[in-house]
Amino acid sequence: MNRRQFIRTTGATIATAAALPRVPRAQSSPTSAALPPHLALEVPGVHAYPLQHSVAAGEALELCVSNSVPCRLSICRLGLHADDPAGDAVLAEFPESPANPQPIHPGSYVVAPQSITESRALTLECWVRPWELTRLQGIITQEDKESDDGFALGIGKDGYVGFFLGDGFGPDEKVVHRTAPGAVTRDKWHHLVATWDGLKKRVHVDAREIAAWDFVGPLRTGSHPLRLGAMAQGGVARHFLDGDIAMPAIYGRALDAEEIGARFAQRGLEPARGAGVLACWPLTEERGERVADAAGAGRHGRIINHATWMIGGPSFKADVPRFGGYDPKTDATRGHGLRLASDDLYDCRWSVTHRWSVPADARSGIYVARLQFDYEGTPREQHCTFIVRRPARKKKAPILLLMSTNTWRAYNGTPFAIARPARHQVWGTGGIESNARGLPAYNFYRDHAARQGTYQMGVRMPWPAAGPYVLYGGPTKYSHLMRADRFSQIWLEEQGYEHDVVSDWDLHRDPGLLRDYKALMIVGHNEYWSLPMMRHTDDYLRGGGNLIVLSGNAVFWRVSFNDDGTVMECRKTDAAGARVPSLRRGEAWHSQDGLRGGMLRDCGAPPTDLIGLDFLGYNSPAAPEQFGPYVVEQPDHFLFKRPEDLALKRGDTFGSAGDGIRIANAHEFDIRPSTFARLQEQPSPAGGVVPVDPAGMTLLANGQVYWKKGGSAFDYFSRRITPKTDQGGEMIYWERPQGGRVFNAATIASGWVLSVDAKMSALLRNVLAHFGVLKK
Questions:
Q1: How far does CA 278 lie from the centroid of its chain?
Q2: Cα separations (Å) of 283 from 335, 366, 482?
Q3: Residue 43 · residue 103 · CB < 8 Å
């Protein structure tokens, strides 16, 4: 360890747009306490996020922009042309902003400001499960690597354990000692204990002494803050741990071998007690940022950059059964742990650089802040999407259009990607850059850099994945994020239907949001739902409401939010794209509410109870030969006849532009429970039950998916199947016995074809008329 290596950090002087007052940094993130000194990373390019991604007309939009090059910003309401910005309404333009980069500060750890004072003996104890072993990482530290006082327990390259005690004047080689490599291994819990009795330093791993060195002191503890999961260097926190910690403790005496063996046998389930305990953090909180010191010394800690709770401790057998009612609260051997990551970042903490007062008469809809700039000699543009809601005083439109903002966020990998020169950009599930350039890049489809599964996403982050020209299908120009939602809104505006637009967060937080709307429309890829969203929608339907679903893979994964909505949590397990392996299924319980996570069908809230259908599978959005239309099953149903007669016969097809590309059964699709039962190829797993079709449901049309040409289908328990037919999404009409009416078109691409297929367009007009919605 070179303790005198200089670590350069970069500050930032933030220039706001002309005519705007300078905004103090504290105002950029009112729910986040000040950040202690922390290693800063520069973010090249132009990036932006709104403090709130949904604002009402008459409120102020506050944007946080970081730009390493000059840029021009305009505010636009997206228009009727999905691929041409010339149709957008430009509502505000700001003068060019000079280069104004704002840094980010990734890396989670715990800081306890009350330091340990001078001590004639010392023990540092912690359980740790490393995720990465290629570099130096702090476990329990009170030091700065630019000084020669303090103490530290850490791990490093190839699994060595390092133990530092500072005497205030000795050179590095006298006070810093390392064990041989291989003392700890990746993805395994280890009990680390470093002791000093005034004469000798010792390191025990898993109750076995593996190294000892002479050190007669004196120990100069210094006045540095205590840190768990990080070290300081050059005055800032860095050397962040990629790993899980449990039951860290500090003693003012040296534990002997017998005591260490007893602590090891307790597997992190018992706090440190007795004489000489200076600090102990049992980590029983399981949510929030406060970490209490159980030793009574008041060395309470604060989590920086959120970290991840609800992972269990060293004694936890995480491969709990999928079915059977496991409850973390009754598991006496679960223990408690905290997962730390060097790329944890959930709030950029950037200053507000631009404000725009949304006109009181602004139309509800999808808006963007369009940032245009030159980078590396080519013109480029970046978009920051936000929703403008109806103001509270304005009368509600007949239709409420729900934007899939949770899904846009879930796919927001590589938030700091540099915009490409081309307007249309093809994003994969993990983002647009395979090389993250050392910046946070994780999402719900891409693990953290050290391969920790992603269990949460921050809201105060750039979200370029929600841009209006982000594609998923390449040559097909198919989209499944914001652009997919736009097609339904464009159709509503073309047809002259009045509507209001809201975000998923709006539905989550407002129980009365849906009241008095004649119809709620769920569109695009509305995959990520919270229990409050489901409850509020169910209450609306029970009160006689109407639901139109132009979405596939809808209402699939459960999410929850922290109190102010700035962090979205999702623990994906037991299905394609899972970030929680089945062997760690016990980590699927959320920290925000303590409830089971994963597929909503496994969380006691099956989507079939709300929208009638559940997820069957997917095909390649870049392979139109796998796409298929709808095939009519009930041609005499009133939705095909009134008020417009579609003149369809059984077996007729619709839902296609006729170009061989824009076809309704593309990407992902949903089916009835009875169809799951028919397609199942093996017995149900123990405790698993396929539900029955709810009463009152009619199959209007059967979607076609050409499985022989590709794609992946799954049974109700997410096991791969090979359909013997071309079974695709099932279009239904459902009069729910508990109240409410549902029309479900069952596919993400159903909105894609609305404006290009006359039959599909007429069908939706009939549905709206049946639900009491007329054109303005």
A1: 37
A2: 9, 42, 39
A3: yes
pTM reported for the whole predicted model: 0.94
Other CB atoms within 10 Å distance of the CB of residue 722: 10
Tell me the average pLDDT of the chain. 94
Q: Which residues of 217-231 are buried (b: 16+ CB within 10 A; e: fewer)?
A: bebbbbebbbbbbbb
The pLDDT value recorded for residue 171 is 53
pLDDT in tens, 15-62: 233 323 222 233 333 445 799 999 999 999 999 999 999 999 999 999
Average pLDDT over residues 117-137: 96
State the residue for tokens 């350069």: 8
Q: 10 pLDDT exceeds 60?
A: no
Q: How far is it, in rounded angstroms, from Cα 432 to Cα 424? A: 12
Phi/psi for 101 (5° steps) reads: -75, 140
Please choose, from the candidates 527, 585, 577, 263, the residue with its C-alpha nearest in 3D space to the C-alpha of residue 406: 527
- Based on the number of CB atoms within 10 Å of its own CB, is 12 exposed (0-12), middle (13-18) or buried (19 or more)? middle
Which residue is listed with tokens 């999961």?
A: 229
Burial status of residue 677 (CB atoms within 10 A of its CB: 0-12, 13-18, 19 or more): middle
Across the range 661-684, mean pLDDT stands at 98
Residue for token pair 């390191």: 203
Mean pLDDT of 157-164: 97
How confident is the model at residue 16, as a pLDDT?
Answer: 31
Q: With beta carbons less than 8 A apart as the criterion, state whether 234 and 7 touch.
A: yes
Place of tokens 């729900």: 402
DSSP assigned state of 446: B
Strand 614-618 versus strand 60-67 pairing type: unpaired
Query: According to the model, what pLDDT value does residue 174 have?
Result: 59
What is the pLDDT at residue 287? 96
pLDDT in tens, 690-720: 999 999 999 999 999 999 999 999 999 999 9
Q: How far apart are the first and last CA of the chain?
A: 72
Q: What is the pLDDT of residue 32?
A: 56
Burial of 336 (0-12, 13-18, 19+ CB in 10 A): buried
Which residue, among 451, 459, 445, 234, has the nearest Cα to 343 in the 3D structure?
451
145 — alpha (psi -120 to 50), left (phi > 0) or beta? alpha
Token couple for 185: 């291994």
Residue with tokens 């060019």: 96
Which residues contact residue 771 at a Cβ distance below 8 angstroms, ignoring those fewer than 6 apart? Answer: 518, 519, 546, 548, 741, 743
Distance of CA 491 to the CA centre of its chain: 30
Helix boundaries (H) for 577-713: 638-641, 673-679
- CA-to-CA separations, 430 to 41, 344, 599, in angstroms, rounded: 22, 16, 20
Which pLDDT score, from 0 to 100, does residue 627 have?
A: 98
H helix runs in 101-222, sequence order: 172-175
Residue 173 pLDDT: 53
Q: Beta strands 470-471 and 365-375: pairing type?
A: unpaired
Task: Please state, in angstroms and as integers, the Cα–Cα distance from residue 60 to each residue in 89, 354, 534, 546, 577, following that order.
Answer: 18, 10, 29, 32, 37
348 CB-near residues (< 8 Å, 6+ apart): 49, 64, 66, 102, 104, 460, 461, 462
Q: What is the mean pLDDT of residues 149-161?
A: 97
Q: Which amino acid is at 598?
A: G
User: Model confidence over 462-485: pLDDT tens digits?
Assistant: 999 999 999 998 899 999 999 999
The whole-angstrom separation of Cα 664 and Cα 452 is: 36
How confident is the model at residue 175, as a pLDDT? Answer: 72
Residues in the chain: 776
Report yes or no: 137 and 157 within 8 Å, Cβ to Cβ.
no
- As given in the structure block, the two tokens for residue 573 are 């397990």
Find, among 106, 153, 160, 170, the residue nearest to 133 by Cα. Answer: 160
- Helix boundaries (H) for 339-451: 405-410
Percent of the chain residues past pLDDT 90, beyond the cut: 92
User: Which residues pair with residue 202 across a beta bridge?
Assistant: 195, 212
